[in-house]
Amino acid sequence: MKKIHILSVALVAVLAMGVVGAVSASAHEWLANGVAIGSALPSTTTGELTLGSENGLKLGIKSAVLCSGTFVGTTGPGATDEVTGVLSLTGVTVTLSAPLVCAEVSTCTTSEVAPVDLPWLTTLTTATNDLLAANGAGNPGWEVVCKTSLGTVEETCTTADQNATVENDATEKDVLGKFLKEVTGTCSIGGANTGWVESSAADGAGLISLVNGETLEAS
């Protein structure tokens, strides 16, 4: 069937809940077992995100897909963290040639998603807020191939910055990161402020953990 550039499905972040921004060295930082992280430690974030577009074909057509996976990267030192890759739940690295298959939420019957402009750099701006930002080569984002009854949709959405809330979890002894829906993404067809990302209502938040098993905290 003829490819039709219709919708975009969105942003980033997806799962990493990391953050970037100018923060004074003494303001906020990541802790491992209660001690400030002195050098970058390998970390993962696992959860579900809904990626969406508000303006497919520039006609206000809305679409959204639900994606599950794991972000891999590092946390620390200080307030910084980084996402260097995305894995499927089976541990396969997600790329443009090996995309993540996501579930339908609206419009897309099936979809394939891959990250763009990795690594994603982030900074802890407060003890409860993470900010995702550009890495110097481009803004974080996703390329999405959305299959609809009309044909196949392809679009890339990126964001100059995206906030996520973080919360120390006493039960898990790790950090929970959550995206609230903010329509701030720029999509290659829909235009500015048409893409968005939101933590899954069912999963609630992404779980950020240190690979070495130490307790992670945002301070």
Would you give an account of this structure?
The protein is mostly beta strands and 219 residues long. It has a single domain, classed as Porin, CATH 2.40.160. It has no helices and 17 strands. Strands 3, 4, 5, 6, 7, 8, 9, 10, 11, 12, 13, 14, 15 and 16 form a 14-stranded antiparallel β-sheet that branches. Mean pLDDT is 82; it is low at 1-26.
Write a compact overview of the structure shown:
The chain is mainly β. Helices cover 0% and strands 55% of the residues. The radius of gyration is 17 Å and the shape is elongated.
Tell me the strand percentage band: over 45%
End-to-end gap: 52 Å
Q: Count of helical segments? A: 0
Which spans have pLDDT < 50 for at least 5 consecutive residues?
Answer: 1-26
Q: What is the CATH first-level class name?
A: Mainly Beta
Radius of gyration using CA atoms only: 17 Å
- What is the residue-mean pLDDT, rounded to a whole number? 82
Number of strands: 17
CATH topology: Porin
| Domains (count) | 1
Task: Give the overall form.
Answer: elongated
- Helical amount among residues, as a percent range? under 10%
SSE series: EEEEEEEEEEEEEEEEE
Main features:
14-stranded antiparallel β-sheet, mainly beta, disordered N terminus, elongated, three-stranded antiparallel β-sheet, Porin, 219 residues
What is the secondary structure topology, with strand pairs?
Layout: E1 30-32, E2 35-36, E3 41-56, E4 61-75, E5 80-87, E6 100-106, E7 110-116, E8 120-126, E9 129-133, E10 141-148, E11 151-158, E12 161-169, E13 174-178, E14 185-187, E15 191-199, E16 206-210, E17 216-218
Antiparallel strand pairs: 1-2, 1-17, 3-4, 3-15, 3-16, 4-5, 4-6, 5-8, 6-7, 7-10, 8-9, 9-12, 10-11, 11-14, 12-13, 13-16, 14-15
